[in-house]
């Protein structure tokens, strides 16, 4: 994947517009997300383990909001069933186009279909695993539960959903603590105060985070029987939700 350095919010700018996953973002996305999202690489890598453990023969695996395909490839390389199919969806053609190129260059054998489409309009069918890595937060809040309900309905009885998100915190001290560490993380990765401020302004009306409790409640409302946070680094976390309560005694 491209290693072009993210400098989108540096230099002179006449105005700050809302963040969009356009060609300029796609060109620098690997560097941007590595330097902006603590734990991103670990979450993507470990998501592949969910494919290894929970993808079932003959099923579909969905990567909703696939961006350039990092999660798709992690899943493809670890799913043990050749008769599975991965369906990777992104509504930005700049992202979906590069995802297709990365899939074509990958030697994996599990079939991958890349679609440029709105995830709210994609049918979820015969799914054993669905992944929403840093995607739900970009949907309007009132459209999140309907999507999760559709995912729940499209999962097999033993199906699993992985949701990774930036978190908000109801407690002011917790919010200040995690925000401070996140800002320190971005500074340590070479972002200037100006870049941090401009990107925050560009994202504030586009990315609306929820608390961990809100994620739990919404997943329960959608019908999931067991929900467990499995990873957190500062104000970024990932949860797993099971359609049925899993039997982990084996």
TrEMBL record:
S-adenosyl-L-methionine binds at residues 40, 65-67, 90-91, 118-119, 133, 200. GO terms for biological process: methylation; tRNA wobble uridine modification. The keyword Protease does not apply. Residues 61-159 form the Methyltransferase domain. Transmembrane segments: none annotated. Its EC number is 2.1.3.-. Coiled coil: none annotated. It is an enzyme of class 2 (transferase). GO terms for molecular function: carboxyl- or carbamoyltransferase activity; methyltransferase activity; S-adenosyl-L-methionine binding. It catalyses: prephenate + S-adenosyl-L-methionine = carboxy-S-adenosyl-L-methionine + 3-phenylpyruvate + H2O. Keywords: Methyltransferase, S-adenosyl-L-methionine, Transferase. Belongs to the class I-like SAM-binding methyltransferase superfamily. Cx-SAM synthase family. Catalyzes the conversion of S-adenosyl-L-methionine (SAM) to carboxy-S-adenosyl-L-methionine (Cx-SAM). Homodimer. This is Carboxy-S-adenosyl-L-methionine synthase. The gene is cmoA.
């Amino acid at each position: 994947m491209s290693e072009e350095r993210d400098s989108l919010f540096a230099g002179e700018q006449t105005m700050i517009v809302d963040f969009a996953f356009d060609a300029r973002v796609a060109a620098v996305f690997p560097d941007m997300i590595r330097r902006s999202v603590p734990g991103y690489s670990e979450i993507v890598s470990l998501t592949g383990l969910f494919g290894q453990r929970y993808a079932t023969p003959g099923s579909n695996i969905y990567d909703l909001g696939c961006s350039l395909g990092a999660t798709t490839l992690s899943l493809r390389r670890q799913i043990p069933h050749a008769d599975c199919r991965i369906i990777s969806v992104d509504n930005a053609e700049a992202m979906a186009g590069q995802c297709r190129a990365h899939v074509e260059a990958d030697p994996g054998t599990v079939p991958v279909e890349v679609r440029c489409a709105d995830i709210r309009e994609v049918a979820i069918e015969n799914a054993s695993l669905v992944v929403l890595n840093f995607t739900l937060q970009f949907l309007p809040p009132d459209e999140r539960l309907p999507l999760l309900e559709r995912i729940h309905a499209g999962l097999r009885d033993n199906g699993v959903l992985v949701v990774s998100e930036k978190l908000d915190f109801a407690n002011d001290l917790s919010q200040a603590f995690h925000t401070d560490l996140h800002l320190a993380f971005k500074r340590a990765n070479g972002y200037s105060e100006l870049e941090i401020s401009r990107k925050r302004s560009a994202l504030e009306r586009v990315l609306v985070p929820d608390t961990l409790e809100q994620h739990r409640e919404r997943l329960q409302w959608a019908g999931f029987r067991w929900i467990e946070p499995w990873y957190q680094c500062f104000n970024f976390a990932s949860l797993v939700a099971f359609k049925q309560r899993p039997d982990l005694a084996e």
